[in-house]
UniProtKB/TrEMBL annotation, chains A, B:
<dbReference type="GO" id="GO:0045892">
    <property type="term" value="P:negative regulation of DNA-templated transcription"/>
</dbReference>
<dbReference type="GO" id="GO:0046677">
    <property type="term" value="P:response to antibiotic"/>
</dbReference>
<dbReference type="GO" id="GO:0003700">
    <property type="term" value="F:DNA-binding transcription factor activity"/>
</dbReference>
<feature type="domain" description="HTH tetR-type">
    <location>
        <begin position="8"/>
        <end position="68"/>
    </location>
</feature>
<dbReference type="GO" id="GO:0000976">
    <property type="term" value="F:transcription cis-regulatory region binding"/>
</dbReference>
<keyword id="KW-0678">Repressor</keyword>
<dbReference type="InterPro" id="IPR009057">
    <property type="entry name" value="Homeodomain-like_sf"/>
</dbReference>
<keyword id="KW-0804">Transcription</keyword>
<feature type="DNA-binding region" description="H-T-H motif">
    <location>
        <begin position="31"/>
        <end position="50"/>
    </location>
</feature>
<dbReference type="InterPro" id="IPR036271">
    <property type="entry name" value="Tet_transcr_reg_TetR-rel_C_sf"/>
</dbReference>
<dbReference type="InterPro" id="IPR001647">
    <property type="entry name" value="HTH_TetR"/>
</dbReference>
<keyword id="KW-0238">DNA-binding</keyword>
<dbReference type="Pfam" id="PF00440">
    <property type="entry name" value="TetR_N"/>
</dbReference>
<dbReference type="InterPro" id="IPR004111">
    <property type="entry name" value="Repressor_TetR_C"/>
</dbReference>
<dbReference type="InterPro" id="IPR050109">
    <property type="entry name" value="HTH-type_TetR-like_transc_reg"/>
</dbReference>
<dbReference type="Pfam" id="PF02909">
    <property type="entry name" value="TetR_C_1"/>
</dbReference>
<keyword id="KW-0805">Transcription regulation</keyword>
Length: 213, 213
DNA sequence: GTCTATACTCCGATAGAC
DNA sequence: GTCTATCGGAGTATAGAC
């Protein structure tokens, strides 16, 4: 076969297959040859639809950004509730596709869904009365926290092996090997605790800012 | 030359050279051949000192963790001040070696300096009266925030090109192309704002926890 | 026990035939 | 728009020199 009657590939099909592969086996498993094999074509065929492998990964990343709900910024919720719900939705999207997070963490760049996300959050904060500079900071600091929470599981970063943490070296890590087991619950709780603290702290700053006007 | 009188390599020299290479040209620039060339040696020689390339990167990461000051947990500062100073020191270390952050973000694993860091922070929170579960959450959420802030610059994630952000698509991103320019200042300010909010919020939780005792 | 030489497999990407 | 052939370079295993 040289040129089929109907195209075998489409950008959508490539992105979907790539996302499934990333989810199942990680970023490192995505080689052009491997991805092409999953699609039933030869490696270089991908280059008819994307200029580089990185473009494919960017498209996968953006398809994950597109899953974040933004409706909370439109229905008159107060800024704090909206920010909370947005953060949870954002985090859930990343948690469902943790392997692509390193690509997302590079920033929005030119990815449309990521830009819509930044635009909506920033716009809502300005709308709620935050001065532009503070609204920028809020966008940044929420991103730090959410990306950080998705990038590396805290609990999963410890080894599931008691002998790895000698009490003589690390007097307080006696239970650390248990963290790996309860990973999900611990990360979930830490995320909620951090988000609550962050929003409580921001509410304090908001009062000060509003009194100055 | 087959076997030199004096060893040309040492683990320290490899780690130092690798760190310099990572800092100067990024993670992707570190191949065993390239690193060996910098050391004046052939590629496979590295495998006499490290079992894999990944072990070298882990060692580089840990040498950065070792730069984080931990003295604030020992001199009787209150938990909030100590946590603040620790976060700043932590972030500064990462900011000085941003290219290695993806490796650090995988978690402490078996890296001694990273474990000392987790141990010190967790121990200090328990010492200050936080219940163990909350102390774990604090360790996690601080890590989220600090790693997130170091991993991808928020401001640097935007493209330095006004035409990339069409107002019709992103009504609130009119100035976004300017962010890349002022990267450092914006990231610095967002980090401080977030850290203050986080600590304010935690102080609120602390009061509640202490009242229950 | 530390190095060099060599080789194997896989990678991203390009050129050109159909 | 797909194929095959091919390139340079990656990680790393192994054999052997000294």
């Amino acid at each position: 076969m040289a040129r089929p009657r109907k195209p075998l590939l489409s950008t959508d099909r490539i992105v979907e297959t790539a996302r499934a592969l990333v989810d199942a086996e990680g970023l490192a498993a995505v080689s052009t040859r491997r991805l092409a094999a999953e699609l039933g074509v030869s490696g270089p065929s991908l280059y008819n639809h994307f200029r580089t492998k990185d473009e494919i990964l960017e498209a996968v990343a953006d398809s994950v950004s597109a899953q974040v709900d933004l409706s909370m910024f439109e229905d008159g919720r107060d800024w704090r509730t909206a920010l909370h719900d947005w953060a949870v939705s954002y985090r859930n999207a990343l948690r469902d596709h943790p392997n692509i997070v390193p690509v997302l963490a590079r920033g929005p760049g030119r990815r449309p869904a990521a830009l819509r996300l930044a635009d909506a959050a920033y716009g809502a904060m300005v709308e709620a009365g935050w001065p532009p500079a503070q609204a920028t900071s809020i966008g940044a600091l929420m991103r730090y926290f959410i990306m950080g929470s998705a990038l590396g599981s805290f609990a999963g970063g410890f080894v599931d092996d008691a002998s790895a943490y000698d009490p003589a070296d690390y007097p307080h890590l006696g239970q650390a090997h248990l963290l790996a087991e309860q990973q999900e619950k611990i990360d979930e709780r830490a995320f909620e605790a951090g988000l609550t603290a962050l929003l409580d702290g921001l509410a304090l700053q908001y009062e000060q800012v509003r009194q100055q006007v």
